[in-house]
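Exercise 7.
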Amino acid sequence: MTKVVKKKKHTNFFAFIKWFWILFAAGILSIALLFLLASWGAFDPLPTFEVLENPQTNLATEIISSDAKTLGKFYLDDNRTPVKYEDLPQNLIHALVATEDARYYEHSGIDAWGTLRAIAYLGSKGGASTISQQLSKLLFTERASASSLDRIIQKIKEWVIATRLERQYTKEEILVMYMNIYDFGFNADGIRSASRIYFGKEPKDLKIEESAMLVGMLKNSSLYNPIRREQLVLNRRNTVIGQMAKYDFITEKQKDSLQGLKMDVNFNPESHREGLATYFRMYLQGYLNRWIAQNPKPDGTKYNIYLDGLKVYTTIDSRMQQHAEEAVQEHMKRLQKEFFVQNTPERNKTAPFLELNQDEIAQILERGMKTSDRWRKLKAQGKSEKEIRESFTVKTEMTVFDWNRDTQEKDTIMTPLDSIRYYKSFLRTAMMSMEPQTGHVKAWVGGLNYKHFQYDNVIQGARQAGSTFKPFVYAAAIDQLRLSPCDEFPDTQYCIEAEKHGNPEAWCPKNSDGKYSGNLYTLKRALANSVNTVTAQLIDRVGPKAVVSIVKNLGLSGDIPEVPSIALGTPDINVYEMVGAYGVFANQGVYVKPVMVTRIEDKNGTVLYEYVPETKDVLSKEVAYAMVNVLEGVTEGGSGTRLRGNYAKDQTLYKEIITGYPYEFTNPIAGKTGTTQNQSDGWFMGMVPNLVTGVWVGGEDRATHFRTINYGQGASMALPIWGLYMKKNYAVDELGISKAEFTKPEEMSLNVDCNKPNDSLDSTPAIEDDLDDLDF
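Solution. The predicted structure, written as C-alpha cells, is:
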C-alpha cells in the first residue's frame, strides 16, 4: 500500500512539471504571438517604411541673421528646430546614455536584461524602457491609454517600432532624433530650443552640469522644470551627474565638484512678442505669407511657416540690431521723461495733447476706441454699440507699458478709455539701418516695445518728412541745372506766383525765425542751416515735376503732389523708403532696393528662394557726391553739429536730452535733420560710406508733441538715437563700419571746394522749424 502512494506522488510531480512547461511555453508563444500580431498591424496599423524614414513632427520656421544667429522663430504649438548629431556635445550624449539607457549601444531596441530586472523588482530598480522605445512612444503614441489592457498593447507596439527604428537608423540618428523631439516645457521643443531658452546658448556650448539638468528633465519635464521647482530639478541634475560617474563618463572628483554647483539658469523665453527684432519678425511674417502664396510646393500644396521648418536667412545683423534697440531704449526713456515733465495736467490741461479743444480730443479718443482690439472683439461677440461703449468706461485690471519698471510693465486698474489716452501720451519712434551698396537692411526698430505698441512705424507709418525732403530738391537742382554746392543764393523773402501752384495766392515761405539775413548762402551752407528761402528758389527754378520725378526714382511710392510746398517736406514718407532714397547718395547715384531676405530653404536645406538685387541708376556719380558734400555740411556746422561733441556744453536747457550723450565723432558724416510744423515729427538721416540710417520720433497723433522747438526739433528727438547707435557700432571693430571719406569720383566737374570766407559754416547750428509757414 505504501509503495502505491509513493508512485502516485511521483506521477503527480511529473504532471506538475509537464503542465508548468506547457503553460510557460504557451505564455511565451502567446507573448510572441502578440508581438507577431502587433507587427502585422492586427491591433492598429503600424508606421510604414516611408513613415519611419520620414517621421512627421512640426518644425518651426527659423529666422537667421547675417551673422548666423537665430533672431526668432514662427511656430504654433511646436517651437522645434532640429540639430545634427555633431551639434550635440559629448557630455550631453554621455548624460543621456548613463541615465536613460546604459546598455544603449549593446541592444537592438529592447533591453532584455533591463526588462527582466524590471519584472523581477516590479520597477523599483528602474524601468526597462530604452531610448529607442521612448522615441517610438514620442513619435507614434499620442497619449498613453488609461486602460491597462490598451496600455499593454501600446507598449507592445512601441517595442515593435523600437526594433524597426533600430534597423532603420544608426544609434547616433536615434539619439539626435530623440533629443530633437522631446518637449522640455515653456515652448522648448527639442534640445536646441531648450538650450536657448534655459541657458541662452546653442547645444554645442552646454557645460556638463547644464547637459545633466536637461537630461534630468527627460523623466518628466512638467515636474522637473527649473522655473517651477528649482530644488527638485537640482536634486535630479545631481542624480544624473552621479550616473555619469557610475559609468565612468566623469571622475568621482568631477562628480563631487559638479554636484556642488548651483544651477545657473539663464531663462530666455521665446515668443512672438519678445526677444530681438520683434518688429522685423512681424514684418517678415507678412512677407513670408505673401511669398508662400506665390510659391507652392512641387505637389501644389502651400508651405506652412509654422509647421514646415523653413530656414529664412536675413540681412539683419544681430549685433547691430541689438545696438539699435539699446539706442532707442536709452534715448526714448529720457525723452519721454522730459515730455511728461512738460505735459502734466497742471501745466497742460489737455495733456497729452496740445492746442486741441475738448471736442477734438473726444474725436481722437473715439477713433482710438473704434480701432481697438476690444471694440473689434466685442463686436464679433454680437455686443451692441451701447454695450461696447459702456465697457470702455468700466474700470478693469490691466497690465500697461511703463518706462520706470525693469520689465517695462505695471499692473494697474483703469478704464479702457483712460488706457487709450494713457498710451497716446507716449512718443513713438522708428529706425532702420541699411548698407547702401547692397541694400541689406542691418537693423529695424519699429517702435518702443512690440508687446504694447504693435504698430510698425518703419514701414506701416508714413509721416511728414520736414527738412529731410530738402535734399531731393537740391539733388534735382544740381542734376538738372548743373549747380554746385558752392553756388550762392540770397537769403531774402521769395515768393512763388500763384499760377505756378494752382492756389489763389502766392506762396512765400518764411525762415524758422521769420527773419531774412539778406546774405548770400552757398547751397551747402543753406542746407546745413535749413534756409527755407533758398529751397523755395531751387524748386521754383527746377520745377516741382522734376523733383517728383527724381523722388519716384529714389523709391518713394507715396502720393507726392507736383506743388512747390513739397520743398519743405509736406509729403508723408515712411522710414523704410527714406533710407532707401538716401542710400543713392552714398552709393554713387545707384538706387538699390532695400532687401531683408537673402535666401529661404526647406527643412532639408533645399534652396527655395534666393534674392536678386533690384538696382537703378538715378544720379551720376558726381551729382551723388555733390549731394554727399552738401549733406556733410549739416554735421560740420548745421543742425547736426552736436554729433561732433562741441555744442551746448554750457547750456543747461539740453542737459537731459543733449549733453548726456558725448558723441564726439571726428569721421566724415553726412546727414539731415527734419522737424515738421508744431514739432509733431522729428527726423534724422545719417550716413557714413557703408551705412545709411534713418530715425523718426513723434506722437501717434500729431497733437502729441513738445510745446517748444528746443526739445521738439529733429536734432533733439531723433539725432541722439543715431549717435548712440553709431557709438555702439564703432565699438565693435568686426562690424566694419566705415570711418573713411566718402568716395569721390575721379572726374569731378562740379565744384565742391568752397573756400571763400563767407562760405564758412556757422559755428552754432540752427534750431529749425522747417514747416514754420505752410499757408498759401
